[in-house]
Amino acid sequence: MDGFEEIQKPDIEIFRMYMPDIAAFTESGHKPGETVICTGKIKHVGSTYADQWEYLKTNVPENRIHECKLTLAAPNWYHLRYKEGKAYPKSVYASDAEYFADIATAYQTELNILYEHGLRNVQIDDPNLAYFCSEKMLAGWKEDKSNSKPADELLDEYIKLYNDCISKRPADMHVGVHLCRGNFVGSRHFSEGGYDRIATKLFQHLNVDTYYLEYDTPRAGGFELLKHLPKYKNVILGLIISKFPEMEDIEEMKKKVYAAAEFIAEGNHETQQEALQRLGVSPQCGFASHASRNAVVHSDMIAKLKLVRELADSIWPGEP
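-> C-alpha cells emitted (320 positions)
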C-alpha cells in the first residue's frame, strides 16, 4: 500500500506512551525499534494477503476452503498509537476523516480481491478497540493535553471507519472482529478491563457478524454485557488461554458457555438453546503472536486445540 513507510528507531515523542502496547514495550525495557507511519497519500497498489490465502488453500481439501478464515490487521492500528497530529503529515491529510476515508477505500479494494480469490470468512484482529475498556489508558488520554477530543468520540470514529471498510463486502462474506488484549514477550497481555464500557457501541453500531472475545481470565469481566448482542450476530468465547500450558477444566468451561447463553437469551427474549446457536468457543488468542514466543510448546498447543474441540462437541454434538 502506497503512502506508508517503515521508520527505524522512531522518535519516542511521536507515541502516546499510555497506549497499552507502547507501555508494555517501554515498561519491559524495550524501545520501539521500528514503526510504520503515513508519509503520503494512501493507495492500494497490490494485495497484502492474497498470497497467504492462496497458500492456505493448498493445505485443505477443495470442498472445505469455504470454511477457512483469514485474519487482517486492524485499520486503526497505525493511528491510535501516535499522538494527535503525528499519524500523518498535515500537508497530506487535513483531518482524520480524510485519512480514514483513504484507509477505508484500501480495505474495500483488498476485501474485493480476496473475495475474488475465494475468501468468504474474514477476521480483523484489533487490540485497539479493547484499549477503550482500559481505565489506565483512559486516564492517560484525559491527562494528555494534545488530545482535542474525548476518547469516546474517537471510538465512534473508529467504528465508522470499520463500517466504511466493510461497507462494500459481498453479502456472503462473513466478517468478524477479535478484541485482543495483546500477547507480548513472556506471555504478557497489554490491557485489562471488561467489555461492558463499550458493549452497546460494539454490538449495536459495529457492522460485523461475529465478535471473538477473550474470556480466559477475570480481567475480561463478566457475561452480562452479552444482553446487548442483537439476534443476528454471533459471539465466540475465547475461554482457553493460549499464553500458558495449564489446561482448563472442561466442566467449568461448559458452565461459562451456558451462563453466557443465558444472558444472550435474556437480552433477546429467546431460549437458551436458541442463544447457544450464536455462540462458539475458541482459544483466547493465537499461539504465535510474538516472535519471541509465549510460554507454550507445540504439544501444549495441540492439547489446547483438542480441548476446544472436546468442549465444542460436548455442547454442540455433531456440529462443525
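DSSP finds eleven helices and eight strands in the chain.
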